[in-house]
Design goal:
The structure is a homodimer. The first copy, chain A, is built from 7 helices and 5 strands. By secondary structure, chain A is of the alpha/beta class. Chain A has a single domain, classed as Rossmann fold, CATH 3.40.50.620. The longest helix of chain A has 16 residues.
Chain lengths: ~240, ~240
């Protein structure tokens, strides 16, 4: 009997990772979902990650505690305000202050470790270069270089059995395209969380870059965002 | 005034990382030392790391808590016995059970994040391919691939300013050569710890692969190992 394909999927609890998980399942993978409690302001996203993992009947959902706050350098983990803007202000072109240094490199490295332990050859990450053009670790050349390094980093790499592949199925899609693809695959976006600076009850602010990208994505897709927002102004 | 060179040095508290730190200092770098509490059996090595960092007057010594135990897959972090052998048995040629999946990839990824935050272009890691030929992530081709990936992973990489270099100065040295170099540079090896399975009081077992490599290194260098061992048999 052919062994069922297994993959590690990085699952933050947002639109991109929920869609990526649905794509991995559609491709026939049994999924190990991996999330991180890394000192993010928006740790409420882990609640979303748990619900998404459960709905998708993953083999296992691992939430690792990692300490990026001690390293600092980002508005998402350090004591720096998350920028808010009215929707009339264009989305930033430069690398934003919410960029977390080397975050995807760290996340992928844990995924690589887990892949080696469970014997998976495939890792999925929901990065995309269009909406997050400012993030260095969301670019195709970065993903390709990571895959090459990862192919040398493990036992299988030494033994010449390495077939490790980093899948970034959303990398060239716009947020609207991602949402439309997810809807086709039956993703329930009311379970997802995107806001960088939610209220204590978990409501999205509607004004951080992440909320604005999300809202624009739903609008461009001609759909209504099913999550709750604190304010309804300026949208 | 020329800005002083700064580097991140991965510091486990063993012979290799202590020597690597001394080499970085000799090259003129001001050092940020980075250690990990990763669920290792031999967490006593962190005491050594602290003493070595202090003696070398590093700018800062950061010990991060990371959770490799949840991922498992190694005798160093999971509930698997560390293999012990008499010194008459040759050291293993295959990848040993003490190999921790993707450990160096994870460690280097945190170093990369910290390097980006403090503005360092240099990362030092004390891997070596001769004594640890079984570890995939100790090979020169792995280090080269990591450096290439790291050069694309950060803000500086996007802005074309990336000069990031992964230094592995011990990579082709034998343990005896490392010890001799360290002695030249004034490394105090009585502060270091190598044993994978120390007693509660921190004494080395003398029989795990790490102890045996260390003892052989001192013997080949014609020197006496200054640390204490639980047993004196078979050496």
């Amino acid at each position: 009997m052919k062994k069922k394909l297994q993959a590690i999927v990085l699952l933050s609890g947002g639109i991109d990772s929920a869609t990526t998980l649905a794509i991995a399942k559609t491709m026939g993978f049994d999924v190990y979902a991996l999330s991180f409690r890394y000192g993010q302001r928006h740790a409420v996203e882990l609640k979303s990650a748990r619900r998404i993992a459960k709905m998708n009947r993953v083999i296992r959902h691992l939430i690792l505690d990692i300490d990026l706050q001690k390293i600092g350098g980002s508005a998402l983990t350090a004591d720096i305000n998350v920028p808010k803007r009215k929707s009339t202000v264009p989305l930033r072109k430069n690398i934003p202050i919410t960029y977390v240094p080397a975050r995807n490199t760290i996340f992928l490295s844990y995924a690589l470790a887990w892949a080696e332990v469970v014997g998976a050859d495939d890792i999925f990450i929901g990065v995309n270069v269009l909406d997050y053009s400012g993030y260095p670790d969301c670019r195709p050349e970065y993903i390709a270089a990571y895959q090459k390094m990862a192919g040398l980093a493990t036992k299988a790499g030494v033994e010449g059995k390495q077939k490790l592949k980093i899948h970034a199925p959303l990398i060239k899609m716009s947020k609207a395209q991602i949402i439309r693809r997810g809807i086709q695959l039956g993703v329930n976006y009311s379970l997802t969380h995107s806001c960088y600076d939610p209220s204590e009850s978990g409501e999205a602010c509607g004004e951080c870059d992440s909320c604005r990208l999300r809202l624009k994505g739903f609008k461009d897709a001609g759909l209504e965002d099913p999550v709750k927002y604190k304010k309804k102004a300026c949208r």
